[in-house]
Amino acid sequence: MSHTPTDTPDSGRSPVARRTVLGAMAAAAAAPGLLALSSPASAAPAPQPAALPGGGDLGPNVIVFDPSTAGIQAKLDQIFKQQETAQFGTGRYALLFKPGTYNGLNAQLGFYTSIAGLGLSPDDTSINGDVTVDAGWFNGNATQNFWRSAENLALTPVNGTNRWAVAQAAPFRRMHVRGGLNLAPNGYGWASGGYIADSRIDGSVGPYSQQQWYTRDSSVGGWSNAVWNMVFSGVQGAPAQSFPNPPYTTLDTTPVSREKPFLYLNGSEYRVFLPEKRTNARGVTWGNGTPRGSSLPLSQFYVAKPGVTAATLNAALTQGLHLLLTPGIYHLDQPIQVNRAGTVVLGLGYATLIPDNGVTALRTADVDGVRLAGFLIDAGPVNSNTLLEVGPTGASADHSANPTTVQDVFVRIGGAGAGKATTSMVINSRHTIIDHTWVWRADHGTGVGWDTNRADYGIRVNGADVLATGLFVEHFNKYDVQWYGERGRTIFFQNEKAYDAPNQAAIQNGSIKGYAAYKVADSVTTHEGWGLGSYCYYNVDQTIVQHHGFAAPNKPGVKFHDLLVVSLGGAGQYERVINDTGAPTSGTSTVPSTVLSYP
Description:
This protein is mostly beta strands. It is built from 5 helices and 44 strands.
């Protein structure tokens, strides 16, 4: 997302080796006779590596406040001043508030800044004041307000309404707003977000200039308007289904959900809460006292600091520890390999993984209940075939009772420097839930160009029964999403095709003009999607024509609801919405072409 405004306020936009040692030791322990045969009787036993410690200090970039802390506002202002415009900087911060009441605060959030309460319920940590995202740094354009978050707090806004003017990768989770919520920047400038989950807004939500939004398993006092695509699932108080006028897509419940893990305090002990899975979910998880789920003490986590090696992270996992990635940048020369069921990898303050030598940043085995949450993967300068793999190729185990969740895990190719990856995210394990991701081939920043930050594919889903809730995937050279698994479902999809295609030939897909944003494989017999949008802004060659935004087999079990395509200011056009169905976009009007149901 990135371009600056052109014509109308609601249109144009946006966008804007220890593991080896441990393995050998395990093998030797399983076959002691072999060890005896290969070692002289008088030989001293090999020294065993010391176990890695669990728990410990959270590091200098996790800043913890309690109600008696002096100078809270000054510290918040200092971090905001540093991070306000640092879109591709290296600073990473988590601001954590112990349970209690805080008065008169305005926590303005810049890039790579997370704010969160440390209670079990949002109402345990009350701020009489605001948690604010605005766009003064970008002349009132909020389309680049990425990579920041608010979680697990209760707010009583000073003037009755809290401002949260964000774009992609800026989740608002487990929040209680005792008042209203304004999702637009001051002056109602450009905005392109966003995501709310497990939150209660007592007053009304005003999206104003927000072009699209997804809200899940929450409660709102009202919702005031819509531009192109507003999607709700499991939201009490949501507007009724009315797409395309106004463009509300409303599902009464969310088929399967499990909230993101979060850090909290039990007395003076840090623990990580693991919310339980819900089916046909509606409303917040925390409304009637203690949320349902389980928790782990911090002593069961390896608390990672920037500079640690991938080998050490893998040794910790092999030892049976979970990973807590404290804020900062982690360079990897081998994949982080998650092999144990139920493993938690939780990032704080946008901890960022960078594969330096073309490896995959993180892989999981085909096991139950892995939870990946709250970190950014930044492609390295050497092309990676993949950046995140959930399950190995051919994974087929049934994980319906305890799925793997991928939540607030964001992927970036380019922007902070030249990066390349053939396919960013591959989902092989069945029943995986992708709950809010932004997978972005950068359209601005450094290291950006059609072949400079080459990335052909965004997400490829091979596993069956995968559910995506809040899928943002943008600017890939070919397909943004490819879906090969059966019985896949997506609730809310937001996409822009790559801005920087040099000409029509560069995007030609055989006889088809352009690669669809969302492609369901011809072999698939059952698939369903609700509230899906694709936009084009071909700013290098505005004569480019994209045949359609969506492509899928024409079969009774493949169903789509509430689709749209839109040309931003006439920079390129779509001929159809899905397959050969739907009207073309027209001229410079920036008016969506819609299809209510397909087939």
